[in-house]
TrEMBL record, chain A:
Source organism, top-level taxon: Bacteria
UniProt entry tagged with the keyword Transmembrane: yes
Source organism of the structure: Sinorhizobium kostiense
Membrane topology annotation: Multi-pass membrane protein
Family designation: Belongs to the 4-toluene sulfonate uptake permease (TSUP) (TC 2.A.102) family.
PANTHER family registered for this protein in UniProt: MEMBRANE TRANSPORTER PROTEIN MJ0441-RELATED, MEMBRANE TRANSPORTER PROTEIN YTNM-RELATED
InterPro entries (alphabetical): TM_pro_TauE-like, TSUP/Inactive_protease-like
Descriptive protein name: Probable membrane transporter protein
Record's keyword annotation contains Lipid biosynthesis: no
Chief location bin: membrane
Key words of the record: Cell membrane, Membrane, Transmembrane, Transmembrane helix
Automatic annotation (TrEMBL), chain B:
NCBIfam families assigned to the protein according to its UniProt record, in alphabetical order: alph_Pro_TM
Keyword Membrane: yes
Pfam families membership: Alph_Pro_TM
Keyword set, alphabetical order: Membrane, Signal, Transmembrane, Transmembrane helix
Protein name: Uncharacterized protein (TIGR02186 family)
Top-level taxon of origin: Bacteria
Region forming the signal peptide: 1-22
Length: 308, 267
């Protein structure tokens, strides 16, 4: 059964889209990630124009992050003040990102930029995660304590001015690195269609030293708002949000996520992280291969509709 | 030179393609007794959610034909369906530091987004190739003018060829020599395939009549291809009310995400 996507302007098999949504939803539920970094490349592999894939991916991230954010809000594990500073940076970053997106698209370098960013980010994050989880698994095998790494209490970030007290996180921290992190993630959201949790969570833990208890909730809080904002800005500047595609993906995604959560609860933390790392690396390698092997056709044609 | 100018005028008139200009055209070629009439099975194609392409049938008749010439098969017809025009950019990739990067590009001015051609036989055998080329009939003779192009033109040919090849591979440019058939002495039927990725907008059906290698008459009719129902409403909303559309997309995501968490909550 085919369904016509009005914005992507092509017909797709609805079962493939449903399958993609369900599979990514399952994985995102299992690993506790938004899934934007999987859905966008998958859509691109399925010949959805990257411009549509990115904007629609951001819409899918809203759906997959909102329920987690609400749960954390109820439990009180969101530092709203910290989240607001992150969000401030995120909104500016997303605006800059959408602007860059339009420029790169006009120059014909958007697809390459999206792929390169994915390769670099997925490659490095996946590599680090794999390294860390294999180490943890080895220690577990030798019955060594698996404490979270907490090197030196102070690094240069903690010497920056404009400090602010974040009561819930019980830290006294400069707003500069927080807003800068938000800005960076916001830019990734609008250029890559990802929520950015897979970068934000480790950055908050290892760089900003924010207690793990509030990290996930606070990161989800900022992701929901930044991706919602990105969807609106992408829709109004690039007209690339395909609501039919997004809706099919999110319906399958939220259902898949429920089953993923159940499977995820049965696996050990480091096994889960190792699997996620392998998955992230696999997507990164697939995209890297695409960049290196000679293309089927060195020419491509875009009509003004999607070229500009 | 004068003949050439007149030819150019003819092409311009054909390109304008409104019914009014088709009439002007008929007056210009009054020294031929033949007249061409065409009609299409529908003047509107709707793209619905399960659209997988459509076949368009064009009927036509030759009036005032010469029975002898007709019997000898000297009348030939070419029917084209030309889609709405837009600029198109061709990009070429090159290997830079091991990865494939778009390095060169060329934008062609106002080229049709779809083009189908049907004829009674191979167009190269219908009329002298130069005449066909001058009239701009067929993908090979389509006018591909680079926009703001100041280079030496050495790579113009390769970009034009790549453009034609890719559009043909995508199925938006196609040809069917044999797609026009005579169903009675002077009545003919042409079928043109609209691909699943047919662009929206006004397409123009053109029929050309040739007698023994000479161009006699042409007729043009518009064909509207429109998205219907929900598809059209979505496209319009996305372009005319983009902020509201974006807000709606977000609301939909919030409801879906929240709804699922309520629905599947265990406690």
């Amino acid at each position: 059964m085919t369904v016509y996507l009005p914005i992507a302007e092509l017909s797709v098999n609805i079962f493939i889209i449903l399958g993609m949504g369900a599979a990514v939803g399952f994985l995102s539920g299992m690993f506790g990630v938004g899934g934007g970094f999987l859905i966008t490349p998958l859509l691109i592999f399925y010949n959805i124009p990257p411009v549509v894939a990115v904007a629609t991916g951001a819409n899918q991230v809203v759906a997959s992050s909102i329920s987690g954010a609400i749960t954390h809000f109820r439990r009180g594990t969101i530092d709203v003040k910290l989240g607001t500073v992150l969000l401030g940076g995120g909104l500016v970053g997303a605006s800059v990102g959408v602007w860059l997106f339009s420029i790169l698209r006009r120059m014909g370098q958007l697809d390459l930029t999206i792929s390169l960013l994915y390769v670099v980010l997925l490659g490095s994050v996946g590599g680090l995660m794999l390294w860390e989880s294999i180490g943890a698994m080895r220690k577990a095998a030798k019955n060594l304590p698996t404490a979270l790494r907490r090197p030196g209490q102070h690094i240069w970030i903690h010497g920056l001015p404009m400090k602010m007290r974040f009561k819930k996180s019980k830290i006294y921290l400069s707003v500069i690195p927080v807003a800068a992190l938000g800005f960076f993630i916001g830019m990734l959201t609008s250029i890559m269609g990802v929520g950015g949790g897979f970068i934000m969570v480790p950055a908050m833990i290892y760089l900003l030293r924010i207690p793990t208890s509030v990290v996930v909730g606070t990161s989800l809080f900022q992701i929901v708002f930044v991706s919602a904002y990105t969807v609106i800005v992408q829709a109004s500047t690039n007209y690339t949000v395909d609501i039919v595609l997004a809706f099919v993906l999110m319906i399958a995604g939220v259902i898949g996520a429920q089953y993923g959560v159940r499977v995820g609860q049965r696996l050990r933390g480091e096994q889960l992280r190792a699997l996620l790392a392998l998955l992230v690396l696999a997507v990164g390698i697939r995209l890297a291969v695409e960049l290196v092997i000679p293309p089927e056709d060195i020419y491509s044609v875009v009509s003004a509709g999607f070229g500009y | 030179m004068l003949a050439r100018a007149r030819h150019f005028l003819l092409i311009l008139l054909l390109a304008a393609a409104a019914p009014a200009s088709a009439q002007t055209l008929e007056r210009q070629v009054t020294h031929f007794p033949e007249k061409l009439e065409i009609g299409i099975s529908t003047d509107e194609i709707s793209i619905t959610s399960d659209f997988r392409g459509a076949d368009l049938t064009i009927f036509g008749a030759i009036d005032g034909f010469d029975a002898n010439l007709l019997a000898q098969g000297k009348y030939n017809i070419i029917v084209t369906l030309e889609g709405p025009k837009d600029n198109a950019t061709v990009r070429k990739k090159e290997r830079v530091f091991g990865i494939w990067v778009n390095t060169q590009s060329m934008t062609f001015e106002l080229v049709p987004e779809a083009y189908s051609l049907s004829s009674t036989r191979d167009i190269a055998t219908i009329a002298p190739p130069r005449d066909i080329a001058n009239m701009g009939i067929g993908v090979d003779h389509m006018r591909l003018v680079p926009l703001g192009f100041f280079g030496d033109g050495s790579n113009l040919g390769e970009f034009r060829n790549a453009f034609r090849r890719i559009r043909e591979q995508n199925g938006v440019y196609q040809r069917d020599p044999g797609g026009v058939q005579f169903i009675s002495s002077s009545l003919f039927k042409a079928s043109v395939r609209l691909p699943a990725n047919v662009p929206n907008g006004v397409h123009i059906v053109r029929a050309y009549l040739f007698r023994d290698g000479l161009f006699v008459a042409a007729k043009a009719l518009p064909l509207r291809v429109i998205k219907t129902g929900l598809e059209q409403a979505i496209t319009r909303a996305a372009h005319e009310q983009p902020v509201i559309y974006g807000l709606f997309a977000v609301t939909l995501a919030v409801i879906t995400g929240w709804g699922a968490s309520l629905l599947f909550r265990k406690d």
